[in-house]
Amino acid sequence: MTQQRYQNGKQVIRRWDEVFKAVTAESRRQLIISLADANPDETVPLPESAVNPNVPRDPAVLRQKLYHCHLPMLSDYGFITWDTEPLVAGRGPRFEEVAVVFESLQSNATDVPDPLVFGCQRLEQERQERFDDPVAE
Q1: Which domains are assigned to the chain?
Q2: Alpha-helix residue ranges (DSSP H) falling in the chain
Q3: Buried (b) or exposed (e) across 84-108, using 16+ Cβ within 10 A?
Q4: For 66, which DSSP code?
Q5: What does the pLDDT look like over 75-110, one tens digit per residue?
Q6: What is the pLDDT of residues 122-136, one digit of tens each?
Q7: Which among 1, 33, 6 is positioned nearest to 120, based on CA atoms?
Q8: What are phi and psi of 47, to 5 degrees?
Q9: Torsion of CA 102, 54, 61, 105, to 10 degrees
């Protein structure tokens, strides 16, 4: 029993480490959000689905970073699937494990500290909607 709890604990730690590593880059966060907004069986076009609208990047540079760094990592963890021609991404078998981080933030937007909200269109919008509709809280 103790050995099983130890193995389960190690697995949970590894999975959380993968989720938090996945969300450490802005383009990966934007891609996960884009996929969460899409229908579960749809793919999203890249690089445009990995761009923060407030801080646009050079599409050629972003495409290269996605291809060589971000997409392989997210795919290795099972969070996404991707194809090269055209460059698109879809939800992987473990997508919900990473998407829940953003769903939780959105549903608690009124509790998120201001420095993490202002400048983030999604959280700003969610917070405003909750303030405009007191029944939502």
Answers
A1: 2-136 (1.10.10.10)
A2: 2-22, 26-37, 59-65, 71-76, 95-107, 114-117, 121-132
A3: eeebbbbbbebbebbbeebeebbee
A4: I
A5: 999 999 999 999 999 999 999 999 999 898 888 878
A6: 777 777 887 776 555
A7: 33
A8: -90, -10
A9: -10
